[in-house]
Write a structure and sequence with these properties.
This protein has about 110 residues and is an all-alpha fold. The protein has five helices and no strands.
Length: about 110
């Protein structure tokens, strides 16, 4: 008898909680649309999806325009290791993407990347 009562209370409580979560989610979406947060988030996602430019890659690695491929690799190794040990995964991934971008640029220009 007590088990049946507890089971009914749990079912009723979970139903009420589920409706409350759904209503809160709907209200949050309405507020986001009113304030423009939703559109800003979409723009940020689109901006993040674009490819990194060679200039941005050089800024991330701290290299000049006339840096050799060996300098790129040295700087990449240093920054990648440093961010792997006591930095953040985000910075480490930015360093990696910068190296990939410059690698493509150096391959196009004919300088060896081996």
């Amino acid at each position: 008898m007590a088990a049946k009562l507890i089971a009914n209370l749990l079912i009723m409580g979970s139903g009420i909680l589920g409706r409350a979560v759904f209503q809160a989610y709907r209200k949050a979406l309405e507020n986001a649309n009113k304030t423009g947060v939703a559109q800003e988030t979409i723009q940020n996602i689109r901006r993040a999806g674009r490819a990194m430019t060679e200039q941005e890659a050089r800024q991330i690695l701290g290299l000049s325009e006339n840096a050799s491929w060996e300098e790129v690799l040295q700087r990449y190794d240093t920054l990648f290791e440093r961010n792997g040990k006591m930095g953040s995964f985000y910075l480490q991934s930015k360093v990696h993407r910068a190296k990939e971008c410059l690698e493509a640029a150096y391959q196009k220009s004919g300088e060896g990347t081996q």
